[in-house]
Write a structure and sequence with these properties.
mainly beta; 7-stranded mixed beta sheet; 11 strands
């Protein structure tokens, strides 16, 4: 069992930056691939970024490539999402997920709101 808690969301102006964190419980964190997903009002949840269990491989949605960076610290049981050059269309609830495969979603966090004003 893995429990995930996101933090770091908030309100930011377009062009600004935010760093999301996702803290995981359990001693098996390093055996899970981790991912970030988001859901905007009225839209389906979509993939944002993922990272392999070792951190050696990362994957991004085309819409965030070059602006967002996913990373993890297995010693701290934490995965991060650095978001730069934010756009109003990045506004959504951002969810952290853990999975046995990259972009897998065996476990979800509760989400954190990111709002980008124009």
């Amino acid at each position: 069992q893995v429990q995930l808690v996101e933090s770091g969301g908030g309100l930011v102006q377009a062009g600004g930056s935010l760093r999301l964190s996702c803290a995981a419980s359990g001693r098996t964190f390093s055996s899970y691939a981790m991912g970030w997903f988001r859901q905007a009002p009225g839209k389906e949840r979509e993939f944002v970024a993922a990272i392999s269990w070792s951190g050696s491989s990362t994957y991004y949605a085309d819409s965030v490539k070059g602006r967002f960076t996913i990373s993890r610290d297995n010693a701290k049981n934490t995965v991060y999402l650095q978001m730069n050059s934010l756009k109003p269309e990045d506004t959504a609830v951002y969810y952290c997920a853990a999975g046995r495969v990259v972009a897998g979603t065996d476990y979800w966090g509760q989400g954190t709101q990111v709002t980008v004003s124009s």
